[in-house]
Every structure is written in C-alpha cells, then in structure tokens.
Design goal:
Blueprint: E1 5-8, H1 14-27, H2 39-51, E2 57-62, E3 65-74, E4 84-91, H3 100-114, E5 119-126, H4 129-137, E6 141-152, E7 155-165
Parallel strand pairs: 4-5
Antiparallel strand pairs: 1-2, 2-3, 3-4, 5-7, 6-7
C-alpha cells in the first residue's frame, strides 16, 4: 500500500466523503449529527463553503480510493470570527493507522497559513483519546471542555475545544 495522496476535493468526491461521514453519524459519537446529510446538502455545503467560499475540502486517497477528508468551515457566524476556522477530519475505518490523517493535516496547514487565517479550532467529542493525541501532535492546545453538551445513543457526552495558532 502506497502512502496517502492528498488533493483538493471536488463535487465528484462527495459520495465517497459522505460515505465516510455517514459511518460516523450512524455508528459513533464522534459527531453529534444524528441524521445523515442528503446528497443535495453535501453539494450545497461544498458550493457555499469551498467553491464560492474561503474554505477547503481536501481528500486523501489510498490505492485510488478516498480514505479520508478534512474540511474547514466558519468557526462562528459573526464577522469578527472570520480570521478563525473550524477543522473537521474523518478517516475511513479501514484507512486508520495508514497515515491518512497526518497527510491531510500536512497539506491543510500551509493552505490556511497562506490565506492569513489566525487560529484553527477543532471540537472533539469525548471520550476520544486517539483524536486528542492526534490533535496535540499537530500543535493543538486544549482550551476547555463543556460537560454533557450533547446526547447521542442515549448518553450525554462532553466536548473539548482545541486551538492551534496559525503563524
């Protein structure tokens, strides 16, 4: 198996991206979404955030198939937050441990810095020790935890806010 190849995502990648995300929606507490996004929602989101906006969708391919993605989006909906960006990263279950996440972050951060973003934020649903360790390896710092901020699969879950300065 060759290393992950990272490239900008396109509308043609959205079904593969959706399949990865759908797994996390239906099977895990990694995302607090409880409903699967429709194909139209994926296209609208891509067009608004990536094609017409300042944000990114990068996909990582392993052996010619999309094995993970990272997307950036607006951190908060007020103009003063525009120098900040929220990051979401998902790796297909069968792509974990193959360097997909590292390849995605390695390609993403130079893009963010070139666009003059000032801070990157990730919100991690807890418990998720592997995601916490991964983000800390990439320079993210824990900035706070909200307890029992959401409920999924009948359990209350905490979320942790992680921040990375973008030089």
């Amino acid at each position: 198996m060759a290393g992950a190849h990272v490239r900008p995502g396109t509308e043609a990648d959205l079904p593969a991206v959706a399949a990865i995300y759908t797994y996390y929606v239906l099977e895990t507490t990694i995302t607090f979404n409880t409903e699967v996004r429709t194909p139209r929602e994926w296209v609208d989101r891509f067009r608004a955030n990536v094609a017409d906006g300042p944000y990114d969708l990068l996909v990582a391919e392993l052996d010619g198939r999309v094995a993970g993605y990272v997307e950036t989006s607006q951190f908060r909906p007020k103009p003063a937050y525009d120098p900040s960006v929220e990051i979401s990263i998902y790796v297909a279950p069968d792509g974990q441990g193959a360097g997909v996440g590292g390849a995605l972050f390695g390609a993403l951060f130079p893009l963010l810095e070139a666009r003059d973003f000032h801070r990157a934020y990730s919100v991690i649903a807890l418990p998720n020790e592997s995601s916490v360790r991964f983000h800390e390896r990439w320079g993210f710092v824990h900035r706070g935890t909200l307890t029992e901020a959401g409920r999924k699969f009948g359990q209350y879950l905490d979320i942790a806010f992680y921040e990375r300065a973008l030089p």
